[in-house]
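Duplicate of #3305? Posting structure anyway:
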């Protein structure tokens, strides 16, 4: 994998793809209907944990792909923790101009795309080209609806928005691993969204899913139908409520969550 990470396969631009099956804009966008959940007992709220953010250098136009936790703050608003890496390098360039930074967050794709997003490389490296090198085939990208960015045509869900310039709000805390709270809480950037596109039967992916309710661990919520009915029924039948103060140690949650994940990873009907 190390050798492959040093190779590059150019992306393939396409006119459309599965992620364009449903398109919502403006007031139609409601992130609170996504089954984002609270991972740890002291989290500041529900988080989108498996979103990969696409941003660009406003001068060179080079693309960056990176992990960023997104704390839900409203129907079209999240907080964002930008670590001092490449997206964090892009953001001040927009702020210096008094402009919002375009951002596109896609949720759910092949694990090798997530691996590429976690690859450390020089500023200006296109992680999508790294992702293409792993399986030896290009990542298919499509232009966004409302921002000048490209996202995978085969993603599950895409959120399009802007990181506001010179705006900071309270964000976090967030249970990073095994319910540890280390860095990042405080005044962090704010993202406002104006478009959402998704597959006709999208699966909401999350990274952290140990929570006070195994139903939430299955990424479900009342009135949310982002999973097929068959999977929703299966996940609900496996759900087990446990007290919040026992969530990290109750084996029923662990067993139930593992069973739900196996069900969600099964081939689609």
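Output from current build:
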């Amino acid at each position: 994998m190390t050798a492959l990470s040093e190779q590059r396969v150019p992306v393939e631009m396409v006119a459309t793809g599965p992620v364009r099956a449903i398109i919502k804009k403006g007031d139609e966008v409601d992130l609170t209907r996504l089954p984002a959940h609270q991972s740890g007992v002291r989290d500041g709220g529900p988080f989108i944990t498996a979103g990969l953010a696409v941003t660009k250098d406003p001068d060179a136009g080079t693309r960056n792909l990176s992990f960023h936790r997104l704390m839900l703050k409203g129907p079209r608003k999240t907080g964002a923790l930008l670590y001092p890496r490449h997206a964090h390098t892009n953001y001040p360039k927009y702020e210096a101009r008094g402009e919002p930074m375009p951002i596109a967050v896609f949720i759910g794709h092949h694990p090798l795309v997530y691996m590429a997003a976690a690859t450390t490389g020089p500023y200006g490296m296109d992680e999508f080209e790294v992702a293409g090198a792993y399986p030896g085939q290009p990542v298919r990208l499509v232009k966004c609806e409302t921002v000048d960015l490209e996202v995978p045509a085969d993603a599950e869900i895409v959120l399009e928005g802007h990181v506001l310039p010179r705006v900071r709000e309270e964000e976090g805390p967030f249970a990073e691993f095994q319910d540890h709270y280390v860095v990042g809480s405080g005044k962090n950037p704010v993202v406002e969204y104006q478009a959402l596109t998704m597959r006709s039967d999208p699966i909401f992916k999350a990274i952290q899913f140990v929570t006070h309710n195994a139903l939430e661990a299955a990424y479900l919520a009342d009135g949310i139908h982002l999973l097929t009915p068959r999977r929703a029924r299966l996940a609900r039948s496996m759900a087990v409520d446990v007290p919040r103060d026992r969530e990290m140690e109750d084996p029923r949650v662990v067993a139930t969550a593992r069973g739900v994940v196996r069900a969600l990873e099964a081939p689609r009907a």
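Confirmed duplicate; merging threads. Residues 2-198 form a domain with the Pnp Oxidase; Chain A fold (CATH 2.30.110.10). Residues 211-254 have pLDDT under 50 and may be disordered.
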